[in-house]
Amino acid sequence: MNLIDMLNAPVEPLGYRAPATNPKRTWARNNTAANDAKRKQAIVKYRAGMGAEWCSTRTIECRLGMGRSACLPNLNKWFAEGILEKRKTCPNPDWNRNKGYEWKFK
Predict the structure, then answer these.
(1) 104 occurs within a structural domain
(2) What's the domain count of the chain?
(3) Whether residue 102 has pLDDT greater than 80
(4) Which residues contact 17 (CB under 8 A, 6 or more apart)?
(5) Residue 52 neighbours by CB distance under 10 Å
(6) Phi-psi region for residue 20, left (φ > 0), alpha (ψ -120 to 50) or beta?
(7) What is each CA distance from 83 to 28, 43, 53, 57, 76, in whole angstroms?
(8) What is the C-alpha end-to-end distance of the chain, expressed in Å?
(9) Which of 2, 9, 81, 104 is deepest in the core (most CB within 10 A)?
(10) Cα distances (Å, whole numbers) of residue 96 to 31, 55, 90
(11) How far apart are CA 44 and CA 84, in angstroms?
(12) Is 50 exposed, middle or buried (0-12, 13-18, 19+ CB in 10 A)?
């Protein structure tokens, strides 16, 4: 078969030949109970580490044996939910975020 014959040959789209594929069923695990239990354990752990006083982020991380900035996402999330109180480490107007926050459970 030469090039002219190949160009003149009828062409069928591949979509007509390809077998129809069935969508694969996916299985999803219901993790809500496990996630709730883990969240409650984390709150108990943080309460034990923080106590009743105002603690800086770094102090909380040291008491819980975490790395730097490891607990900040949880603290901010719980602050947004109203579980924690947050204040700046110093009330000066020249405060910046690098000086950090202090946290306390309500």
Answers:
(1) yes
(2) 1
(3) yes
(4) none
(5) 8
(6) beta
(7) 30, 9, 15, 16, 10
(8) 83
(9) 104
(10) 39, 18, 9
(11) 13
(12) buried
Q: What confidence tens digit (pLDDT) does each residue in 7-65 have?
A: 888 887 666 566 667 777 777 788 999 999 999 999 999 999 999 999 999 999 999 99
The helix/strand count (H/E) of the chain reads as 5, 3
Quick check: 86 pLDDT over 70?
yes
Which one is predicted more confidently, 97 or 43? Answer: 43
CATH code for position 74: 1.10.10
Measured CA to CA, the distance from residue 86 to residue 52 in angstroms comes to 13
pTM of the model: 0.66
* Three-class secondary structure of residue 41 per DSSP: helix
Cβ neighbours for 66, distance < 8 A, ≥ 6 positions apart: 60
- Residue 43's pLDDT is 95
